Amino acid sequence: MLTVGQLARIFNVSAKTLRHYDAVGLFTPVKVGEENQYRFYSPEQLPELRRILFLRSMGLGIEIIRELKRNGTLGDAEKLKPILLEHAGSIRDEIGRQQKLLAAIQHMVDYISITGGTNMEPKLVKKAAFTVVGMEWNNKSSEGGIPQLWDRFVPREDEIQEKLQPDVSYGVCIPGSNGDLSYIAGFETTGEHIPNGMITFTVPEQTYAVFTHTGSLRRLGETMELIYRKWLPLHSLEPSQGMDLEVYDERFTEPEDERTQIDLYIPVKP
């Protein structure tokens, strides 16, 4: 027979834990001394205790383990296996969530430490009115988002005829009323031929501060934030109500490429 102290030593668990398992009916002794109330366990109980302690270390609750014992699963390796595999899947899912959280935290640390890939010295450009032909997305009436618009547009861009700059495409951000935002992915053209499902739009003459974003387009929003929060005030530039432009030329490679570059044209007051 084995005492509580001996079990505690074998499994490196406290006597208090073993007494608690007895109190809740999870792991009970085969004998209790009549005079001293000492608990005694048989060697045959050791595999059961090992499984209980293992399942507890895996995060399973006492109620779950007690139910496994009640229905005979705790002592049946084949019945226990799918339960362990299911729990392992839950652990993997949680690890994935924690890894995403860790990556987000690290990204924020990096964001605090860097300038977001923005060229601190903007160029002032007065650009004449021009016409684009392309496909439109609206934040209130269209499905998906801007990346999905480009996914639909790129396979059809060869349908646009008479491109004035075939290697330069535009993302035109058009603010509307009541929080509306339209976005056109397109090329500068004469606007005489409009493919089915596309539109033509004339961007008015505007004065722009031109910044260069470098890196993944996932951080484009951070660059825009820095432009409005930091770089425009730093250069005593005041944004005006107008249309932002994203200009994609030969420097643009892939959306996730850390070396890719696009120019951001921000309307400012002259």
Instruction: Determine the CATH topology of the largest domain.
Output: Multidrug-efflux Transporter 1 Regulator Bmrr, Chain A
Distance between the termini: 93 Å
Share in helix: 25-40%
What gross morphology would you assign?
A: elongated
Secondary structure class reads alpha+beta
Radius of gyration: 33 Å
Order of the strands making up the biggest sheet: 4-9-11-10-6-7-5-8
Q: How many extended strands? A: 11
Report the β-strand fraction as a percent range.
15-25%
> What's the CATH architecture of the largest domain?
Alpha-Beta Barrel
User: Main sheet, how many strands, which sense, barrel?
Assistant: 8 strands, antiparallel
Uncertain spans = none
CATH superfamily of the largest domain: Regulatory factor, effector binding domain
> What's the CATH class of the largest domain, please?
Alpha Beta
H-E string: EHHEEHHHEEHEEEEHEE
What is the residue-mean pLDDT, rounded to a whole number?
89
